[in-house]
Amino acid sequence: MDLQIADKRAVVLASSRGLGLGIAEAIAAEGANVLLCGRSAEKLAANADRINAAGKGKAVFVEADLADPAFAERLVEVAGDKLGGIDILVNNTGGPPPGGAAAMSLAMLDKHFAMMVARVIELTAMALPAMRAAGWGRVLTVGSSGVVQPIPNLALSNTLRSALVGWTKSLSNEVAGDGVTVNMLLPGRIHTARVDELDAAAAERTGQPLDQVQKTAKAGIPAGRYGTVEEFASVAAFLVSGRAGYVTGSLVRCDGGLIRSV
Length: 262
Known about the structure:
Blueprint: E1 9-12, H1 18-29, E2 33-38, H2 41-53, E3 59-63, H3 71-82, E4 88-91, H4 106-134, E5 137-142, H5 155-175, E6 180-187, H6 193-206, H7 210-219, H8 229-239, E7 251-254
Parallel strand pairs: 1-2, 1-4, 2-3, 4-5, 5-6, 6-7
Helix pairs in contact: 1-8, 3-4, 4-5, 6-7
């Protein structure tokens, strides 16, 4: 299926590894030109070289940190210089430290709210006017299954990512008439370095062997396994495609059935 995004200009946050990189690769494979973003110039350069070697959409990169107050302004400027603008924006951020709700401090909330919520909203607001004027745009925010079914010991992530749910739905209603879709994609247990880190933390916290932690986690997923980055990225690529123009304001799950609610 042609996803109708050849030559579209895409910005993918946190694309030095994991889900962000997988999404960038999937979009570029459809012929879109992609701006990779992250804190490691070395990793980003290697990723861009690999995407460019595939000979489809081109990739460029910018070293940028979500903790920087000038992050959004810098990304829009670089996207303009290197791509000529933004048609597709994939908001993806790293997760905060694990921990319970009672342990959250105001300082911790402020720090991670700035990186995981405020920067996403600011960047999207800066990218939207050109999308609306063009009559075409895609905004996709990577969330977590925790916004539907809170994940134990990830209270900070559950709290902050949930804030983006209401924002996604509210914004989608405001810009749908201008040809811009706004959706949120919820991963379950997709096998990334982040999931490995969380499994290791769970093993340390509970005193169980790592393989037992992973076995227990997989037993709680109806599909019986962790998802792959490629599976998740394929769903993301569809949601930002020309084919998905009538899908907006949605929370889309890619979780192997992990979330138990309807």
